[in-house]
Amino acid sequence: MRRLTTEASITLIVVGCLMTIQAAGPAIGVVVTRGSFRIDNSTVWGNGTLFDGTTIETGQASSDLKMSCGARLALAAESRGTVYRDRLVLERGAGQLTGDGAYRMEARSLRILAVTPEASAQVVLTGPDRVQVAALLGPLRVTNDAGVVVANIAAGKALEFEPQAAGAGAPSQLVGTLERRDDHFLLTDRTAAVTVELQGPGLAREVGQCIEVTGTLAAGAQAFSPATQVIRVTQMKRCSKETAAAVAGAGPGAAAAGAGAAGMTATTKAIIVGVVVAGAATGTAIALTGEEEKKPLSP
């Protein structure tokens, strides 16, 4: 009877292990570091296997994540993120994404995508509600959780974002030169580099002028290419001479280059469907290998 009980216990243990492996699903990548880190609240040294939904917390050293899809990620020291087969959700600290334009990073309610496969993005949580995104190599696109484009970031540029609680229903505020194409009115915001189609009275007489507009997103409306969204204008005024000169001389999105986020004026930031977008200094790339941590000796 005791032998049967022992055999039954071993069988239950084996079945339990198999069920656990099946529940974890196939591996989606590996993580390597020069020290220790935590995977799903368990301390690991050197390297580990990633599964869909794995949570990683780095210690004194950064961690290098190599995904099966070809994307390469890095988590800076003292950072935390949850890894999925199609995205990394950054929860604390900073992360970096290189390669595979289909993979993305998420921070707060924002989604950061590489426009080209070789593009490299750095994402830093700079405050309770703020996210800094730098395009280290190649262009990036940033959307909100509804998929609405809130910024396009050229290589070498950085922007800081502050999602607002009001979401897509909040007013948008943009600054740029109004264009007319096939009876459609288009404006590219100088900070976010997002092109929108404007609808509303009085636009025809402002073509060619630098204007500041406030409006709301026309949900479901089909924008005229290259615009990505339609904004119904509620307020509009011409830019000051200084702003108009800056827009004309620097081109769309140039305010993002090296501008500090603090003290931004209405003409050096944008609000796109409830997300404040301001210029920021370009970040420094995260080192894929951080400070080496010595493993404690076994007793």
What does the model show?
The chain is mainly beta and 299 residues long. The chain has two domains: 27-160, Jelly Rolls, CATH 2.60.120; 167-279, NigD-like N-terminal OB domain (OB fold (Dihydrolipoamide Acetyltransferase, E2P)). The protein has helices at 2-24, 241-250, and strands spanning 27-39, 42-51, 54-58, 63-67, 72-75, 80-83, 87-92, 94-98, 104-107, 110-114, 120-125, 131-137, 140-143, 149-153, 158-163, 172-181, 184-188, 195-199, 210-217, 230-238, 269-272, 275-279. The chain has a 17-stranded mixed sheet that branches. A hairpin with a 3-residue loop joins strand 6 (80-83) and strand 7. The longest helix is centred in the first third of the chain and has 23 residues, at 2-24. It is elongated. 42% of the residues are buried. Mean pLDDT is 83; it is low at 8-23 and 252-267.
Percent of residues in helices comes to 10-25%
So how many helices?
A: 2
Tell me the β content: over 45%
Which structural class do you get from the secondary structure elements?
A: mainly beta
Give the biggest beta sheet: 17 strands, mixed
N-to-C series of helices and strands: HEEEEEEEEEEEEEEEEEEEEHEE
| Total beta strand runs | 22
CATH topology description of the largest domain:
Jelly Rolls
Domain tally: 2
Overall 3D form: elongated
List low-confidence stretches: 8-23, 252-267
CATH architecture of the largest domain: Sandwich
**CATH C-level label of the largest domain:** Mainly Beta
- The whole-angstrom Rg is 24 Å
